[in-house]
Amino acid sequence: MTPSQITLGAINLEARNPADLVAFWAQVTGAEPAAGGDSYYLPPNGPSGFGMFFQPESEPRAARQMAHWDLTVPWGSRAAEVERLISLGATHKWDVLEEVAHVRWTTLADPEGNLFCIAEHPPLDQQR
């Protein structure tokens, strides 16, 4: 069987205010957004980055978010990154720091309430 060539092209989000939400995520990722009518594209910031599309809501937001994304930062930098993102407008939801040996994460919400995690993986010799 040939290995898959599938990669993540972009995360697509509907937003109450796409311009404000793309501005938040542009600060998070360091990428420059591009407008196209009332929608916005945020390209990947580098070869291991991810793209994002923001478009106006087509109907009211669901009460429960069915999926979220996990963003990874280098070991030892999670707390500083979380503080940076909170200063940009993210909301702290909860931390999972001791429950799993191979990962620690903080769950945040962006300004429109979309959940995402900032995770760090300890080196193998520091896993319990």
UniProtKB/TrEMBL annotation:
InterPro entries: Glyas_Bleomycin-R_OHBP_Dase, Glyoxalase_6, VOC_core. Residues 7-121 form the VOC domain. This is VOC family protein. It comes from Paeniglutamicibacter terrestris. The lineage of its organism: Bacteria, Bacillati, Actinomycetota, Actinomycetes, Micrococcales.
